[in-house]
Amino acid sequence: MKRVSNRMMQVIDHHRTAFVGLGLTVLVLASVAAGLYSENLHQRQVIQAARVQASIVADSLSGALAFGDQATVSQITTAIRANPEIEALIVLDDKGIPVAHYGETIALLNGRNELRTSDGFTVRVPVAEKGVVLGTVILKQRSEPLELRLARYAGAALLLVAGLSMLTIMAFDTRALARGNRRLREVMEERERAEAALRQSQKMEALGRLTGGIAHDFNNMLAVIIGNLDLFIRRYPDADPKMLRFVSGSQEAARRAAALTQRLLAFSRRQPLDPKATDIGRSIADLSDILRRTLGDAISIETLRAPGLWRANVDTSQFETAVINLTVNARDAMPEGGKLLIECANARLDQSHAEAGDDVTPGDYVMVSVTDTGTGMSPEILSQVFEPFFTTKPVGLGTGLGLSQVHGFVKQSGGHVSLSSEVGRGTTVSLYLPRSLEVSDVPVADRIVRAEHGRRDKIVLVVDDEAGVRDFVCEALTDLGYDVLSAENADQALDIFEEGTRIDILLTDVLMPGRSGRELADEALAHQKDLHVLFMTGYAQDAIVHNGKLDAGTRLVKKPFTIEQIGAELERLERTGDS
Amino acid sequence: MPKTLQNLFTAIIALLLTGGAAASQPTADLETAVKATYLYKFAPFVTWPDPPGDNLTLCIVGADPFGDVLDRAIAGQGYNGRPFRILRLPVVSTDSGCAVAYLGGSGDQSVASALKALKGAPVLTVSQNSQAQGMIDFVNQQGHVRFRVDLAAASESHLKISSKLLAMAVSVRDVSGGPQ
Ligand SMILES: Nc1ncnc2c1ncn2[C@@H]1O[C@H](COP(=O)(O)OP(=O)(O)O)[C@@H](O)[C@H]1O
């Protein structure tokens, strides 16, 4: 029904000009016809009036004319003269001799009984009684003066013009309306697309919040487990080797669990990122050994690097994790073997890309696409793959977190991901990473010289509301040669500063009940200008992190960490503080 | 004054257009001509009780002052499509078939006896300057040929006379008697 009326609207739309033209023509013809009819009617009225007038005159004159009563004849003609519509009148007797007259009419008749002229109508009637002709009356009836008639037609014409313009305006109006409707439809479709994209991103956001919350708690627990196992091995290096094997096995498992929670955090975009200008091509080249091992012999690998490749502003290690995740997926999709292609190229996304996809900001990107010749995915699967824990793989083989990490990382970095897949042919995942505008590479000096054991004369204040974390950190720091103080929260820690205790390093959790680590650090620095501050967090959505990126000059250690990691951070802190 | 039709018409025009002011006394010929036309012109203002047959008969009883002037005047004319016919009689009676009878009077039958003969019959009687007057009686008034109407006599004969004719009469003797 709706379609039918739409169709009709289209037909009308299409032939609108013809309809309007037809309408105008009909209107004009009708007006002309009405004008002619009115003119004709007027003429007939004039003729009728002339005949009647002449008959009346003839009738009233008959006696006077028959018996030569000139006075009466004159009297009657004079009376007729008062009628302005009668322009001329002549009375002839039975011999055709004029008896009375005014105006000029006879010449006009020329022997005819009636004569129509533009200005009126002349009629000749016999004066007769019972068939006896007693004379003749010739009378000219004026038609309405031209200007009066024109004025009347001008009125009609005005109406016509008004009607025409109304019709025209209506026609244009409906055309504008149709245009407006079309535009409205477009806008509505655009909005629907945008809403769908928003719903999708809100869904991802909600999932992220959920997984992020769980991952955070998990992370803290893992920090305790890893830390304690670490401590055990350090404290009891001479323990039963069998026991040490168990412990290191547990350590390994805990580390894998930690890696998993990192992915969860990555998906929830709470992974603290440290974006740097990264040469994507080189990163991939560096990864090639790992990738080859991951893929096995049945799958060949090809990498294409476009010349003049821009650098991307990403966290290198997260990027590498993403590439490994994509490679693992590609391998799993090609159990019979196949080919993996990794391409890097510059990509400039404009407004049209921005409108087509979900929240894409136009601009320069470095594109990395990973293409396999595997099984591919159906559209239903394709629409869910970014969701955490979505997997089609058997239990134990898939976690459903690989693409979640990829998606979270790319989004958090300010880029976007596009997927295309065809069942039986393969899949391409393209990452668009924001182009770095930095001029030169920041020299990476990640390898830290392990500090020697022994006293250092440095006091570290450890603040964490989790007793497990606090205890592990304290133990680890004393092992590294630091003197350690501890506090459960910011208030306790500030009491220590207020007592006048000199603290070299403040090592604090960020998210705590009461004041945050950030607020604590600010107040502590007010007490002691040369204080070094190191934050510990597993949770990036904290006061020290803006948009998931570290503030310049802020030091952060990610939970869970090993003793080596915290030691290296502390040393780096001391070095930057000294320089 | 030449007795030609041409001249007669000219005279009539002159009379009509000038209102007859110049000619205070119509000449005998002119007067007769006018009367001749009046004679048949009375007819259309009169309604007879019975259809008058194929012709409408104008009778000249006794002396005939009109001659062929009358014959020419009625040429081509007719009463409701019935041509006028002229009948010249020495004596008139109800059987003469006259619709209009001009009573000239003669030795054979005086105007009065003619009137008596036609009394009550549907015949429009016309007389002039006579002691005994017909229903219409010609008179001379300020040089114009005029007439009197005896409506009572017409009514007795069941003739209806149009008010248009009455309006032209110098006097009308009504049914109730006496001139109006
Ligand atoms: N390259 C690919 N080819 C075919 N299917 C894929 C590919 N990458 C991902 N998928 C599908 O997406 C699902 C989710 O992938 P992912 O989030 O990485 O978790 P996992 O690999 O642990 O299952 C996979 O189970 C698989 O069905």
From TrEMBL, chain A:
EC number: 2.7.13.3
Keyword Phosphoprotein: yes
Coiled-coil features, chain-numbered ranges: 177-207
Histidine kinase domain ranges (all copies): 213-437
Gene3D superfamilies, per the entry: 1.10.287.130, 3.40.50.2300, Histidine kinase-like ATPase, C-terminal domain
Domain Response regulatory: start-end pairs: 459-574
InterPro entries recorded: CHASE8, CheY-like_superfamily, HATPase_C_sf, HATPase_dom, His_kinase_dom, HisK_dim/P_dom, HisK_dim/P_sf, Sig_transdc_His_kin-like_C
Residues modified as 4-aspartylphosphate: 509
Keywords: Coiled coil, Kinase, Membrane, Phosphoprotein, Transferase, Transmembrane, Transmembrane helix
GO molecular function, one term: phosphorelay sensor kinase activity
Protein name: histidine kinase
Keyword Hydrolase: no
Transmembrane segments: 150-172
Source organism of this protein record: Asticcacaulis taihuensis
Substrates-to-products reaction catalysed: ATP + protein L-histidine = ADP + protein N-phospho-L-histidine
TrEMBL record, chain B:
Pfam family membership, one: DUF4154
InterPro entries documented for this protein: YfiR/HmsC-like
Keywords: Signal
Annotated signal sequence range: 1-23
Name recorded for this polypeptide: YfiR family protein
Organism: Asticcacaulis taihuensis
